[in-house]
UniProtKB/TrEMBL annotation:
CDD domains with a match to the protein in the record: START_STARD10-like
Keywords, comma-separated and alphabetical: Acetylation, Cell projection, Cilium, Cytoplasm, Flagellum, Lipid transport, Lipid-binding, Membrane, Phosphoprotein, Transport
GO BP term, example: lipid transport
Name of the protein described by the UniProt record: START domain-containing protein 10
Compartments where found: Cell projection, Cilium, Flagellum; Cytoplasm; Membrane
Encoding gene per record: OLA.7742
Signal peptide positions on this chain: none
Listed PANTHER family: PHOSPHATIDYLCHOLINE TRANSFER PROTEIN, START DOMAIN-CONTAINING PROTEIN
Domain named START: residues: 1-176
Origin: domain of life: Eukaryota
A Gene Ontology term for the protein's cellular component: membrane
UniProt-listed PROSITE patterns: START (PS50848)
Any one GO MF annotation of this record: lipid binding
SMART domains, per database record: START
Length: 176
């Protein structure tokens, strides 16, 4: 089952332990009392605006549009020294559901975007956002992720660190 790891200031983080050789799943929730679901969706969906709130991002761009609500994209982020920076190629899909919104992604391979020499290609096993409207000017953001950063990091280190990094990331999205 899910174990609560953090619960402060409207942010809750749960983790689901997998076996010792697998990265854990994280589930998060943040209550956004003064942000509409539509605004949160726009913040998460706008790749050019992401530079404003995601200080770790190196670059992001669309590789290919698959349908009106699905694409393949590239994202890279800075890691603290001495670690190599990471990158992803993911298929992303999104769906407005009335006043609620969903965005999901998972890693894919793309023949024109092989792993880069100075990066470690991370893997999004499953990542998703659910944005639920909770009133005219408020919403709740749910985030589920299972990401393997790959490289030489032991899984237990990744699992431990992710529990502390996750709440900070949720607060940055809310403030954006």
């Amino acid at each position: 089952g899910w174990t609560s790891r953090y619960n402060k200031s409207g942010v809750t983080v749960w983790c689901r332990e997998e076996d010792a050789n697998t990265v854990q799943k994280l589930k998060m929730r943040i209550v956004c009392k003064d942000v509409t679901a539509e605004m949160l969706y726009d913040v998460l969906h706008d790749t050019s605006y992401r530079k404003k709130w995601d200080a770790n991002m190196i670059e992001t761009y669309d590789i290919a549009r698959l349908t009106v609500n699905a694409d393949v994209g590239y994202y890279s982020w800075k890691c603290p020294s001495p670690l190599k920076n990471r990158d992803f190629v993911t298929m992303r899909s999104w769906l407005p559901l009335g006043n609620d919104y969903m965005i999901i992604n998972y890693s894919v391979k793309h023949p024109q975007h092989p792993p880069k020499k100075d990066y470690v290609r991370a893997v999004s096993l499953l990542t998703g956002y659910l944005i639920q409207s909770s009133g005219a000017t408020s919403s709740t953001l749910y985030y589920l992720t299972q990401v393997d950063p790959r490289g030489s990091l032991p899984k237990w280190v990744v699992n431990r660190v992710s529990q502390f990094v996750a709440p900070k990331a949720m607060k940055k999205i809310y403030k954006a």
